[in-house]
């Protein structure tokens, strides 16, 4: 290690040595001094303030501050040698067993009862007890055999805040702390990119102080101020990006598509067998006004499952068709595209059957275009779209292929936005001479701060009312491991519903043998749990067992497209009693006669996903029932999550819970680009006020200097924090 001055671009091997630098690069993707300085502690431990071991989850990679309570040595059963078991506790009543294999008498002498240390490893479970196998550790204070180097790393934190870093097994937190200390000793911070007026107005410390204090806090107050400044940088970078994009979009031209009296839209409204809800009417007016302007609409339409988004979107499409344009609806799966096609044809009736017997005089055509179309059907569909006879075109990503040309694409409706990549959306938009209007729909409720941060360049409309005729859904957790009789009762309950003439879903997290697809939970589990249940394995067991005699169908993403459509159509037509499926039924599938859903291994699904899934039942006049089957232990975080889903049908409450349990980086798109993100500290739940303030400053700054030409350092900082790939992800439309 050298005492050479360090800047953000200095390679780590010049500062911490080649071997350590290689470990940091290989395990944590940290290559430069800047990478390491922006690798912030995930939390801070204090002697006297202890991690609650009881809150740790099996499978979690953890670092805990704990005290050795007792040690025991016993011979191993399967091989020669001894096993050292060290029980550590945190003072809250929670304990962990640290196990060390082999003859290691020196560890027993070192890990004396009463000693405090940091213990790092992966939480596993053995016979009901949580443990760390062969954890890395560093002991605090007192000195002693083998501790000199370790204490050199942590002694400066004696009685103070001990940073605990996101680490890897080969690079524990105390090694990272040592490297950070070496870098900070010679680090020259960059020029502060934040305008001095913003720093003064918002009472923010300078960047150099923030970067030092977040790693080596002189006090809790100093740490708070450092974190606040660095959170501001993250929020400001995102908001500047979004406000700039919104500013550019507003300046670009689009063809206005105003409503036309006496057209298809008026005819459609006249034949609707029910009244639009007040919410649908308000949102409809907002969208109609957007479409009538000469700038492209970018609007997010969110609403609970069954809130009537499709009717709102169809009315927007008809307004565009009335104005001489075409509308395309992009669905994430062929099953959903085909269902939209059937549903829209039913809603339009004669208005959607131009060229057919009995069509209305001013009808349009509704065309379905998917990858599974035969050659003749494909040629016919291409001609209908290219020549403009098809006013409404529904499809999957097959719509994006070369050779699918529109006569005049005026509106793009994207269903379930999060399932499409930026490149796919851009490819569809590029099929119009001028940017088309864009309506993004999602049934996943979005908390206010997420809407402000992730969808910040879209206008947002929300449908909060359910149309008349929607039935309530009751949800219950079925603890299969603790009470097997409850699972037996669940299958009897399903049979009772089928006996009344209704239908049911059984959802599994996995398809079966073969490569894992996007719709599946991962099958690997190195924490001692069995693999997730699979559709292809569960269906025959149900047919031979508790659901014997019922008509059972199987649906998953690996089936050929025509087979998927045939199964879904058979279920919709009442020819099947039970559909055993993966999450391919999560969005858009509409079978009003289905009243019960049993989700197996429900703890393997996310909160929002479970909420989406249960929205498939209760869509008709009969009440819905959703049973969440799990082997998760009572009191575990997985079980608490399921209890929360069962306790409420308020999607926004559940969205907040989902957000609490996910890494912020996932929400902000870090997983979309596959690149490491510097967006690490911002909490979309806890930092609402800061995000709102950052947005206000961004609007003012971009209004005065749209391309940040007068603030080059800030522009460079934004580019570093929100790279172009992420900026496109954030664009959402």
From TrEMBL:
Keywords: ATP-binding, DNA damage, DNA repair, DNA-binding, Helicase, Hydrolase, Nucleotide-binding. GO terms for molecular function: DNA helicase activity; hydrolase activity. InterPro entries: DEAD/DEAH_box_helicase_dom (IPR011545), Helicase_ATP-bd (IPR014001), Helicase_C-like (IPR001650), NA-bd_OB-fold (IPR012340), P-loop_NTPase (IPR027417), RecG/Mfd (IPR047112), RecG_dom3_C (IPR045562), RecG_wedge (IPR033454). Residues 290-463 form the Helicase ATP-binding domain. Residues 512-531 are annotated as: Disordered. Residues 486-660 form the Helicase C-terminal domain. Pfam families: DEAD, Helicase_C, RecG_dom3_C, RecG_wedge. Coiled coil: none annotated. This is Probable DNA 3'-5' helicase RecG. It comes from Micromonospora maritima.
